[in-house]
Amino acid sequence: MADALVIKKLNKRFGGLRAVQDVSFTVRENETLALIGPNGAGKTTAFNLIMGFHRPDEGSVTAFGTEIVGMRPYQVCAQGLARTFQVAKPFGGMTVLDNVMTGAFLHYRNPEEARDKAREVIEFVGLSARESTAARDITTIDQRRLEMARALATQPKILLLDEVMAGLNPSEVDQAVALIDKLSGSGLTIVIVEHLMRAIMAVSKHIVVLDHGQKIAEGNPKDVMANPEVIRAYLGSYAHSPNGGVA
Amino acid sequence: MRWVIGLIAAVAVLIALPLVVESAFAIDICIRILLFSFIGVAWNLMGGYAKQLSLGHAAYFGLGAYTSTILQINYDISPWIGMVAGGCVAMLASLPIGWLCFRLRGPYFTIATIATAQALMLIFLKFRDFAWGAEGTTIPNLGNAPLMMQFEEKAGYYYVVLGLLALALAINYKIEKSWMGYYLVAIGEDEDAAEAVGINAPRIKRDIYLISSFLTALAGTFYVQYIYFIDPATAFSFNVSIEAALVSIVGGIGTLWGPVIGTVLLETTSALLQSWLGSGIGGIQLTIYSLILMAVILWRPTGIMGYFYELAARRRARLVKA
């Protein structure tokens, strides 16, 4: 499999805080990579650096061989990368269909064509019943679906999902996992930031763990979960102290 | 089909109006309504759809007014040509102004736009050799000279501004139905999310600012031709900027007919209050006018068109349930 997204030595400081330090990883085509780590580990910052919302201080990001550092978000999107936001950002006053059409216009400037394409994606994520509802009036899971639909309408090759499952109940999480499987099955490369271990285990075979802005582990789920560094990051240093510890 | 018939009927009534109405006062009010509807539509493209709340559109109104007047008085060029020239000058001016102001968002953007209009007014006040300074100038009255945009009857002006409004509404309609309309609304809702779906927000904002300032400049030329007088305080009047925003907000921002409905409501109210109460206690008509404004903004923040859309949506929802 070819490399879809190659991240090399990414660095970003906010004042005195080193939000992302020397992070490198590679996402291969059609794989689902999970980016995990405790709160404040730098996952969302890494997303913002990749998508052009922040400019990295150092480092390089290439998507299918094209350097995308220095591009603005809309240019990155035109390169075939699309994202969802951790806090859903629907265009509240627009209907669900109009929201998704704004994504579809990237490749189809004709409103009729864009509408057809948008409807396809809306059906794919299972939102057809809400098509003409204003985006601000739909439920949390539907807003997440809408975020995905709008991103998918830009016909990305790589999809970055930022905590799409936060705040969902267990059955909704199952639905979201099924949806991500379906996306992966359609050939999409996915990078997912997630807290929910159960969901990560279900969708991803390749995990990158960040802590305090640094990559502390990478590999398949089983190895990563057994990694002492990861356990320390999540549970504190007591959990794995040599003489047994308290925890 | 029904709305096409309605539209044709409305156009027929509007065209026949000056032939039927004889009162010059009534026609004057109609001209003001059409003019401010036109400015409102021009403003609404950027301020309403893309929610870039400019309070500096007087800058383009004034540039349009001065360009055509300077061309007419100094070079004997017809204001019809001057009007288009003024529009082009306004477009050129909108590029650096937009480049500066669009770096700011929200209230900061609004304040910056106010500053640009005020700065232009000061420039025209100070540089007297260039354009008559503070005392301004009257525009020579040529009698009935349609080719110089001067008419003996007010009806002539009425048709000119009616044509301008029709042009602006047509442009607005075209934009609203195209990808550009969706992009504008998306930018107005959330600029980050808009960029994330591939919208080149800086370019879209620049383009709509060009269109909006071009149209506003046409209104400036028309207005000074109508009142035969120009000075910096009239041409760059803060009132123009306020009115442009106000009629759109009251009527419903980001809707095709919002600015028109808002102007009809505000201008007629203001004219009627003036004639009923103007001679009574000083300032009473302005007080009532402001109370109406506050009522609309408190109870109908989406404007009058917004209220109709809500009603329609509620009726649709009821139909779906039934």
Give a verbal description of the structure.
The complex is a heterodimer of chains A (247) and B (322). By secondary structure, chain A is an alpha/beta fold. Chain A has a domain of 139 residues: P-loop containing nucleotide triphosphate hydrolases (Rossmann fold, 3-Layer(aba) Sandwich). In chain A, 36% of the residues lie in helices and 25% in strands. Chain A contains nine helices and ten strands. In chain A, a hairpin with a 2-residue loop joins strand 4 and strand 5. Chain A is globular. Chain A starts with a strand and ends in a 12-residue tail after the last helix. Helices cover 78% and strands 1% of the residues of chain B. Chain B contains 15 helices and two strands. Chain B starts with a helix and ends with a helix. Chain B has one domain. Chain B has a two-stranded antiparallel sheet with strand order 1-2. Chains A and B meet through helix 2 and helix 3 of A and helix 8 and helix 9 of B.
